Structures
1.
Amino acid sequence: MKRVELYDTTLRDGAQGEGISFSVTDKLSIASKIDELGISYIEGGWPGSNPKDMEFFKRIKKLKLNNAKVTAFGSTRRAKSKASEDTNINALLQANTEIITIFGKTWDLHVKEVLKVSLDDNLKMIADTIKYLVSKGKRVFYDAEHFFDGYIRNPKYALKTVSVAEASGAEVIVLCDTNGGMVTSEVFKTVTDVKSKIKVPLGIHAHNDSDMAVANTIAAIQAGCTHAQGTINGYGERCGNANLVSIIANLKIKLGIGCISDLNLKELAEVSKYVAEISNMRHMDNQPFVGNSAFAHKGGVHVDAMLKNSQSYEHMDPSKVGNRRRILISELSGRASIAAKAKEMDVDLGNDKDKMNKILNLIQDMEHKGYHFEAAEASLQILMKRARKEFKDFFELQDFRVIVEKKPRRKITSEATIKVKVKGSLEHTASLGDGPVNALDNALRKALKEFYPSLAEMHLADYKVMVLNEKEGTAAKVRVLIQSQDKKGSWWTVGVSENIIEASWEALVDSIEYKLLRDKKQG
């Protein structure tokens, strides 16, 4: 079986993505997770460029890695200095890694207009740098920056730069689409040409400016590259780098090419979400293979066919990458969707088409009014159980009042009072909050806590408001989505009204009742 070595550059290239800033602890955590996935190489950063990367290389030595080798990254020496006297080169040596990745100029435009040196001087910079590092006992990978652009415009010179790198002792020559502008046919042709002239293993490093990075990486591997670079979730400068998550899944599942174990492949979705969280980035629902929507089915025709044979609308088994199938319910759903979702939510509909139609009609009517159940499955479960008369309210609202007060030179305060009947008792409580919804939430919990102590472990994790008919101005109907969380997981609920407090109340009540319903079932 053909095998490809994976090289992760999330900690350097990924850190250059807009909105991402890793602490040293963040980088160590990500490195540990990537190592567990079975990646061969982890690029730790650029020693000498900043104190953070130097600290990382000191601390990573204390971290036991079972699969990956950490590499340091840097450039060829400066034009007017020897490699042995170059401060950046010496900083690379101080990082004390077995492998050092050096990038150099390939495109004659960069040599002449950016470095402002002669073409021959650039070749000397490449050779001197690699030879010096090899003489110090280092394994060297050479990143041929802008290789594809350079090869198109001046193939003879571009090839000469990588030939010099090979002759100087580089173990791997990595061809880079640094501007991210190549298409697969050009990549395949170029790699094929270069492979016939370069004997050491070839690698691919693609950026995503044309949304082709993963496809170009796969094409390069099919043309002969055995080393692939990328970042988790495709994080990186501008439009990002090749998404290593998608590369792994395509290599393993589509092409049968070895890169990580089948067991580790099942951790792919979890690793993707973990790195997103550490990066303080939203995990994209529509990310191929590992996103929440990657195997989500909404259209009634699709669901009906997929339930009969999953291959009809799924290109693979989602469990292979640690993901799962989801059935979404909306006004587009059919009876098959309702039946599948009811079964998933432990609502017994049997094969009763009348029951399914009743629920389907109810959902369609409510979605027409502005509800959105595919984003609020906890509310959907309660709706189904109520429609089947399988749900008994845990409490009953008598009334509530919310007061928002603003005094001169003081911030706005919110206070809620509430009366609820719970287990035959009338509870009347009041509570302050950061805002009216928070005050209402606090007052309701205060009234219920004696009867349902488990509510203490639940909290609101997110709150979203969408205006549904903007032309109505301040009288517009709004949809409120609330995400709640406890130690066992999180869930979303929805409310709709012209009054934002009423919409919030609906979502809030569903959230608490879902929590109590789940606790009752598990208890």
Note: The mean pLDDT is 89.
2.
Amino acid sequence: MRNWYKIKPEYFFLVIALFFEWRFNKVTPPFQVPDEFNHFYKAYKISQGEFLPIQENKRLGGTIPWSVREFIRPFHKVATNIKYTTSDAEINGSFDLKFSDRDSVFLDFPNTAVYSAVSYAPQALALYITKQFKDVSTARMYYNGRYLTFLIWLVAMFFVIRMIPFGKWLMTLVVLLPMNIYMANSFSADTMTNIISLLFISFVLKLSLQEKKITYWSIVALLLLIVLLVLAKVVYVGLIVLLLVIPPKQFANMYLYASSMLFLFLAAFIATNSWSSTILEFYLPYLDYNPDFRNGICLSNCANYGIQKQLLLDHKWYFVNLIYRTILDHPVTYLSSYIGGFGSMDLYLPRTITGSAYAIIILVALTEKNEKVTPWQFKPLFVVAALAAFALLSLSQHLTWDCVGEDAVDLIQGRYLIPMMPLLFLLFSNTFSKYYWIAPPIVLLSVMFLHRASCQIIYPRYFKDSYYEKIEFSCDAEKINEKNEYITTNDSIFLEAGKFRSDSFAHSGKYSAFCNEWIQYQMSYRFKNLRYGDVVEMWGWQKGKTGELVISAHGKGSWDTVNFFFNSNAIHYRDEKGWGYMNAVFTVNRRCDSSDAIMFLWSPDSTKRIYFDDLKFSIKKYKGKYLDSVYIIP
């Protein structure tokens, strides 16, 4: 066993990373990293040569083809509803949808539109190359982007491990954490940020301990990494504090040391100021955003950059207290998700596993054999650099996402800590360990265990339905009974207002339901026992612009039950005949325990005549407290 230490950690990393990328790729459907569909939209626009955000009619986003939106649509539902699942058949079937850049429409993605092309370089390159092929599918474009992004991450992490002068097995373990591979196997902009950050850390530490003097080419390389880091995600510019661990003796003379440091810090300041000024020109707070499109687009409805900034300036201790409260208020959430927080932050590894992972990381750092490490007097700079990046990250989140005046940053996620946490772990690296052979087998066993546990959590979330009852039906408006009710595919379910149908237009068959000044509600279905945690899905086609899918309930029973009203007027796309496809998924998040629920199609504007056809409806019921999912941290 003592021969373990002879294994090269960078080659060990390649084998393990490739294996678990294959596993994660099998158990993770498309677009299951937070906001990945918006990242895909931005990468697509960059692949078309559009690098800066597009602001149109008080909206921020870009024109996206129907084929892209149609590919994303079913997986968007999976990502945004914790019990909505998919299947291998649905994923394989998505490859039948061919890419076409026709029939584009402007979509909103304000949270990713302001990112630079650096953040999506591999994804955009893969999209650009793949779409040059004839009859290529949108799914193939997506997966090629995922594969190329992972490949670039793989190569970069290989050189990170090879280049870092100490803590090689520690860095191997850190970059093999489930969250790292999960993010690298996606369209997330965080992957490029992580690549550049870790390359910067490794390169700086290498320069600080190398035998030969630092050359001008090394300064140029540092400059390039700093500029790329700013463009990838400006908040991590705080990591440049790490430059101070390079002692003056590594330079030819004191003048070169002083001028190089001044030059690099000044370049970081200029790049940060220039890029920040550029993207702030496109900033639109919720209140200024086009009211017809501002809901459900990853935009905080209570945040305001200008007001929040002024509040920080007017209260000198506000920011210090903010960082203090942020670190203390939510450590479990972001520390757990740094090890493994999957999906839309609805899948976590148990606390016992994440706690053990931190203990193992520190154990590896303490026992790993190192020929030399950064001198102890420079190690506090590791903490300062990590805290500087964390402070800037918290500031950015607070200005653009938190409600004005909030006393802590609520939206810090573990994936944001990937660029800075290695610095804290490297504090434990030493040169006096006598147990140098322990680290490699510990890394192997712990990585295998962590990834196995992760796949066991991820797979059932996406591929195993757990409902105990399902009620569903469809109606094409072709048949009515003697009571003028629509006949559905369920023999026990009939829909109201069957006498208000027309043969003027139809999506399929001969008839469709219509609404006008005399009838605003169509295809109503009244039912009982809608409960907290039920998942309701509605599909339908509409010819017109004012129609909505609605489900409403009047709470009865215990004292804490409430009424609710859910509606959706979103048109996902229109076919060649002008019919708009509508689809809405809703989780009952109110304790209605209702005996009076109703599903119906609605036209709020009675002056407009619209038509509905090919309605589908389903309810899935789950045992236990559905919204208090087993996937939340136990």
Note: The first strand starts at residue 54 and ends at 55.
